Protein: DUF7847 domain-containing protein
Organism: [Kitasatospora] papulosa
Amino acid sequence: MAQDAGWGGGAYGGAPYGGYPFGGPPGWGGWVPPPKPGVIPLAPLGLGDVLGGAFSTMGRYWKQLFGMAAALYGGATLLMGAAVAVAYSAVSDHLDRVVALDHDETASSTDVVPLVTAGIVLGLLGIVTISVVSGLMYAAVPAVLQEAVLGRPVAFSMVWRRAWARVFPVIGAVILTSLVAIVPVLLVMVAFFGLVVGLLTMDGDRGAAVALSLGVVGALATGPLAVWLWIKVCLAPAAVVFEGQGPVAALRRSAQLVKGDWWRIFGITLLAGLMAAVAGYIVQIPFSFLGLFPGMLGTASLDEDPSTAAVVVAMSGYLVATLLGMTVSQIISTTFPQLVTGLLYVDRRIRTENLGPVLAEAAGVPPQGFPHQGPVPPPYGGGTPQW
């Protein structure tokens, strides 16, 4: 398929972004701007269009996006909090005995085994919970964006139904995408382990030095390949929701769409991630300060030899404020990058598959401003164009 399907190399027509194609400004020489029924113009998108579309979607559909995120992450936080409380009530005696040991005493297996078992159960529950919650969010954001591009309203119940219908294929796509980075991450962990052992022993342990060197060199060697593969498959969750693809087919679809535009997608994705990280960090700061005051007041009332339960109760205010800050930060860091990724998916289909006229027809607006009005190629493997 021809690049941009008749739209040329610029953002609009053959002119560079912000220029006037076809001989003059809007209305001159018969040129009219492409329709914009929703948050983006139905034409190849520039950086400003992508970021502006993401912010516009957050502004217009904040109830659906943030409501879904707050319900999911808030519910996950409450679930894990309840699980920790139940686990603590079950192993509190064992924990108190382990904490009360002197530095030269060894904990008995009757105390260690219940603590390890509780930790494993909590860890598995946390993995399952965050997988389902992340899958629902990765499905919900494109579901909202699908209507935002067309300028149509969307109810919270519809977002939930669409997200739940695609949650397991999305989880599969996210897991397969995450496997791309597993080798560099493991190597970084090896390097960290070697560094910690070396610092603790301070005797030039050869094994720690080998682990550190192997981890650093291996991470540097495999990191660029992992980043390249990550960008190649980063559009997979959007393909699952927009086109109903399975996890493996979505990865192939993402690689097909990213082909020829890797650096641009990498730069925009990196910028969106940095913006979300900075915003999330800024949001966490006031919650941390708010949690300091009840934390200081609570610890000031502790005895000289407080129990574990007393410490937890004294720090509960700080813990609650920190969890709230982390939840709000997670909502931002999940929603905004996924909106940007979803818009990049739409942009690539507009550029490579002439999706603009199809979107204009779906939105019920005249397909004006499209120089190419020929037949639209099927989006993936033949059949009727999907949206």
Remarks:
- Residues 1-25, 372-385 have pLDDT under 50 and may be disordered.
